[in-house]
Amino acid sequence: MEMRFEYIDGVLVAHVQMFLDNAGAENFKYVLNERMKEGEKVILDLEKLINIDSYGLDALLAMAQKALENNSVIKLARVSADMQIVLDITKVYRVFDIYPTIEEAVASCQETKA
User: Fold this and answer.
1) Which fold has domain 3-111?
2) Other Cβ atoms closer than 10 A to 53
3) Which of 12, 84, 99, 113 is most solvent-facing, going by the fewest CB within 10 Å?
4) Residue partners of 111: CB distance under 8 A and separation at least 6
5) Order of strands, edge to edge, in the sheet holding 11-20?
6) Are 75 and 45 in contact, with CB atoms under 8 Å apart?
7) pLDDT by residue (tens digit) across 55-74?
8) Which residues lie below 8 Å from residue 75, measured CB to CB, with a gap of 6+?
9) Does the structure show a pLDDT above 50 at 22?
10) Could you tell me the residue ranges of all domains in the chain?
């Protein structure tokens, strides 16, 4: 599991690459957990994610729980139509705010700063 990170207007954007499955789910959790600071706003850019399985879904949910525990926020951006179907079927979409663009996700984080 490979991820690229950048900060946009003080929000950590994690660009998730290709697969979030059994082979990469633990690494995804480890890497994101290491990068996410307490109280931080995080956007997961899923534009390049082409496959997610139950391990990947569990990893997303585990990180959402971790964010709640440390007063952070995780939002999803650029979810493909195929990935949206998976999130809909599994009801995982109820846990995350999902935005069509990174810019909209970052803007939503800015609104909640006050």
Assistant:
1) Transcription Regulator spoIIAA (3.30.750)
2) 16
3) 113
4) none
5) 3-8, 11-20, 41-52, 73-77, 98-99
6) no
7) 999 999 999 999 999 999 99
8) 41, 42, 43, 44, 96, 97, 98, 99, 105, 108, 109
9) yes
10) 3-111
